[in-house]
Amino acid sequence: MDNKELNDAIEQIPVPKEKVFNAISKGINKDVDRGYGKKKKVLSGVATTAAILGITVVSGFFNPTMNNVLANAPLIGAIFQEFNDPTGVDLAYQNAVTELNQAITKNGVTVKLTSAYFDGSVVSITGFVDEEVENGRNEKGEVSFDVNFENNEGDQDPWLNGKSTDIKKVDNGYNFQWKMVYPYKSFNENFTLPITIHNINDIKGEWNFNIPIQQDKNTILALNHEQGYPEDGIKIRIKEILTAKASSSLVYETVEKYKGDDFIISKAVDDKGIEYRFGNQTVLRDSEQGDGYHSTVRTEMAKLNSNATSLTFYPQLNIADPKVEQLLDKKTFTLKSERLNLGLQVNDVTQSGEKLVVDYQLTGLPKNLSQDKLDIINHNLEYAFWLVDEKYITKIDPENPWPPKNHGISFNKVGMIDKETAHFQSTFYLNGEEKIKNYKLENTILLFDFSSFVSSEDLKPFTVELPVGEE
Questions:
Q1: What backbone torsions phi and psi does residue 62 show, to the nearest 5 degrees?
Q2: Rounded to 5°, angle at Cα 78 from 135 and 67
Q3: Where along the chain do its domains lie?
Q4: Fewer CB within 10 Å of terminal CB in the chain, N or C?
Q5: What is the distance between the alpha carbons of residues 116 and 192, in angstroms, rounded to a whole number?
Q6: What predicted TM-score, i.e. pTM, was given to this entire model?
């Protein structure tokens, strides 16, 4: 990425600052359970948040037609309107929601599961928990579930990857909705889903349910369109669109030259002008082959318009720039990004008691950055540095990169010295929650992540003609 592209990329980052920071801290009033990643950079987080908000805007508000559908839907449709779920309303109208009446009481807390649907790649469960849950440790109005599916345990449960929970206060308790992305490559249209709730608000109980899940077979629209971006080292193959009763799913494959690059399709627009946003993804296949890193993904989307004859896709690429490192046996040094026109000039490294202060300047950033963008850069710097004991640098898991416990520090407090010269100081607390056992400055490696400072790059849109009359 040359300097002009870099400047354009940074300058084009949308920054609704208050909304972004509030969304990060509050989860946009929805809990995404059991997060698998660590602290994310805000620059890409803005894009992700915008994508989530985009889905809400496109599919979350009910137009007059949907209100007419709701008026003719069974009573169960009202719960989906409460949770702003038009797919559920549509399915209720089509009598494609399984109504449940399974209730279990443990330690004075009653949980009742009320409905289930499976459409496209999304499974929804709704339920009710009574007000006795307020005797737990959470603040009043907060409800959190420790739950697993299919007798899985802990965070390794594939159903938790992307699972969301929505809670609404009602008389005598709380209604809730869980939405999960179907985690497997091939679909089983009819199955029983075991659910185990281990505790609610730290009230232990083991509430066990077996929920019938069913959907009609998806229709398949084969596309097999290939698009290449040789300058970016990526190739995309749009494979097929699966369509269920109220939603669709897109299946595509990417071949990437650089490991860790994050490709997404931000939206698609059909020839009738209808816009489609894409939701959670399921990785169906991942492998390294002779021509690069292959990944096959299924991602949820709104139901494809049956009259559409073409779709124009708008792809984006988040560049993964390898972390650079420097042993702290010297006070001044310069680090350069491998793939971006960015640099880090370290002016001084000073230890005072249990504090380590690094004084530095970022080079290659555009001039005259707005205060909003400086605030985001300041935030990203808190997580861009790692300190790691050099003896443990090889013990970082590449599949889940994070400093080894008791041998690394991943957070620092940032102070801006001069915004005109992008001059900052980062303070690491050596005896904080994270620490390095047997710490010695000259045996510590500083790692820095330049990819935290560039947003996703918009790739050239491409159009795919839709075959007529194929399933």
A1: -90, 125
A2: 145
A3: 63-214, 218-319+456-471, 324-453
A4: C
A5: 11
A6: 0.73
